[in-house]
Amino acid sequence: QTLANPGDMSIIGNSTPRYSFGFRTSVGWKGFDLDIFMQGVGKRDQWINTTYFLTQYTNEWGGIAEASMDYWSPQNPDAYFPRPLISGSGDIVAVQSRFLQNAAYIRLKQLTFSYTIPSTLTKKAGIERVKLFFSGANLWTGTKMTKISDPELAGPNSYPLYKSLSLGANIDL
Questions:
Q1: For strand 129-143 and strand 164-172, is the pairing parallel, antiparallel, or unpaired?
Q2: What radius of gyration do the chain's Cα atoms show?
Q3: SS3 category, 4
Q4: Going by C-beta distance under 8 Å and a sequence separation of 6 or more, which residues neighbour residue 27?
Q5: How far from 45 is each of 56, 105, 142, 143, CA to CA, in Å?
Q6: Residues 6+ apart with CB under 8 A from 125
Q7: Residues 54/57/58/61 CA torsion (nearest 10 deg)
Q8: Which of 3, 81, 121, 140 qualifies as a cystine partner to 71, CB 3.0-4.6 A?
Q9: What is the distance between the alpha carbons of residues 144 and 153, in angstroms, rounded to a whole number?
Q10: Alpha-carbon distance 110 to 133, whole Å?
């Protein structure tokens, strides 16, 4: 195959997102406040290097990812991955559309829910204001991408996505 005659090779996927979006809203009612921030991308593909999925196939000391346990065997003929091999030679599968992932996603990046206690109750205790809150980051992600990778980073060489939960109170004396 050459550039002039690529044979059956063709361009598959596009890792550049066609759409990027974000949404933030804040609403309040009778001392309750809700702040939501969502973000995501649409129409993006990602081919993740198969050695990331198939680490146990490239060497005998590689870690085993749960997602890569769906490999071919006589008992599992419809598996996603080919049969395991220990070769030490790196990739065992050429770039192809079978391992192309839909990397579009929507994520709840930030959520804060709070309640401000009425000042008629707090002033009796000599407190100006008390606001109780719950806050969370990266609480939910909607994606068709395999759970082995974060669709925001869409690659095998990334740290796991952190989630955080906070409970607290702001007290003004």
A1: antiparallel
A2: 24
A3: coil
A4: 33, 34
A5: 25, 11, 15, 12
A6: none
A7: 100
A8: 81
A9: 14
A10: 13
Joined together, the tokens standing for residue 100 give: 């192309």
Residues contacting 151, CB < 8 A, separation 6+:
41, 46, 103, 104, 105, 141, 143, 145
44 and 154 in contact (C-beta within 8 Å)? yes
**Contacting residues for 169 by C-beta, under 8 A, at least 6 apart:** 130, 131, 132, 133
Could you tell me the CA-to-CA distances from 63 to 52, 85, 160 in Å, in that order?
10, 14, 15
Which string of b and e fits 46-74 if b means at least 16 CB within 10 Å? bbbebbbbbbbbbeeeeeebeebeebeee
**Is the CB of residue 162 less than 8 Å from the CB of residue 138?**
yes
CA 66 – CA 149 distance, rounded (Å): 12
pLDDT tens-digit map of 103-135: 899 999 999 999 999 998 888 888 999 999 999
Query: Which residue in the block uniquely carries the two structure tokens 């740290």?
Result: 159
Query: Tokens standing for 79?
Result: 């598996």
